Amino acid sequence: MNLAMAKAAGNANLTKGFSNLDDLLNRTGPLLDDTKPILIPTDLLFQFNQSALQESARLSMMKLGLLIKRNKDSKFIIEGHTDTLGSEEYNMALSLKRAQSVQSWLIESLGLGSDRVDVKGFGETKPLVPSGDRDAQAINRRVEIAIRPAGT
After folding, report:
1. How many Å apart are CA 151 and CA 116, to the nearest integer?
2. DSSP class of 30
3. d(C-alpha 97, C-alpha 147), whole Å
4. What DSSP letter does each residue of the chain carry, written as one string?
5. Which of 30, 96, 98, 114 has its CA 20 to 30 A from that of 49?
6. What pTM does this model have?
7. How far is CA 108 from CA 49, 114, 134, in A?
8. What is the rounded CA–CA span in Å between residue 50 and residue 125?
């Protein structure tokens, strides 16, 4: 098994317990209270150490927006996460800025109401991989979307 295959297999194990955006879009009917959070790796959305959405994030953002529009009885919480590199304060601020970038794009580009999408920054407090170099911690740099019933 080459390095790329090993890394993909390792990330597959780390992403168990998360919903897949495409699978949720293929469902019929409303999302349920027990829907697992959606995982979007940050490298798909942002360059390393940045909070501005990349152009390549557009498809994922459009899919997320469609899911939000289809589920009017749900609230979506965008949760930003970082790796453990850098200070705790910096990572907390970066994670919140990333979550806010996703929220802003959804509101400005798709016209979603701000009451449908909240943001939280968790910084480095909830790592999927507790330590390692920049490559080993790539999965920690992520955005999760938690889904809750509206009004909660």
Report:
1. 10
2. P
3. 20
4. --HHHHHHHHHHHHTTTSB-HHHHHH--SPPPTTPPPEEEEHHHHS-TT--SPPGGGHHHHHHHHHHHHH-TTEEEEEEE---SSS-HHHHHHHHHHHHHHHHHHHHHHH---GGGEEEEE-TTSS-SS-S--TTTTGGGSEEEEEEEETT-
5. 114
6. 0.84
7. 23, 10, 32
8. 19
